[in-house]
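To close the section, here is one more complete example, presented without commentary so you can practise reading it yourself. The ligand is zinc ion.
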Amino acid sequence: MIKIAPSILSADFGALAAEAEDVRAAGADWLHFDAMDGEFVPNISIGLPVLKSLRKHTDMFIDAHLMVSRPGRYAPRFCDDGADLVCIHVEADQPHEIISALKDIRARGVKTGIALKPATPGGIVLPFLEYADMVLVMTVEPGFGGQSFMADMLPKLRGVRALAEQYHPGMDIEVDGGIDERTAPLVVDSGANVLVAGSAVFGKADRAAAVSALRMASDVKA
Ligand code: DX5
Ligand code: ZN
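Output:
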């Protein structure tokens, strides 16, 4: 099943609870929460206090994407503050530290994800797969919303899906960056089943129309 995960990076931060309710009512599946530290990526967004407040206003599944260096320092707190899934970048620390952070997340009953920047080869996921419930293949350089989709990520996405299937058949594979009606069918065809969309949902006035357009565009059964 395809899941649509609007990224609140493109929402009105002054009215976040209402924005979350708007996309929930529009039929979105998850809420994608982008945390940035100004070090792992050249931007600063939102963090723990915002997550904690938002959690009080929505029962949606919150998918936290941590674009932070040494994420093990903060991952447990994202769990405690209300994330349903915490996704950390494999480039953000040494492999043993990433694995230890994934174990800490799972110990709190929260789902885990590993994210890959565009330059990171797909094969890197292998040692992490047993600790991960989801793989996130970035389809833009992390840091900003509204960038153009990198079509050269499609072969990597296919490779990650193939590797993941050997270990966890049906595992969630998420894509993030430049996903819209035009690119959704390409990523679904290449193995993605969770589609993050910032501009393509929160950037539109009619969120219900935006979510259904993405869902219809994703309906590309072979
Ligand atoms: C970028 C973030 C994305 C971003 C996507 O670093 O991880 O989640 O909000 O925005 P769009 O869909 O506009 O490319
Ligand atoms: Zn993201």
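Once you have examined the tokens, check your reading against these statements. The first strand starts at residue 3 and ends at 6. Helices lie at 16-25, 48-57, 75-80, 95-107, 154-167, 184-189, 199-202, 207-217.
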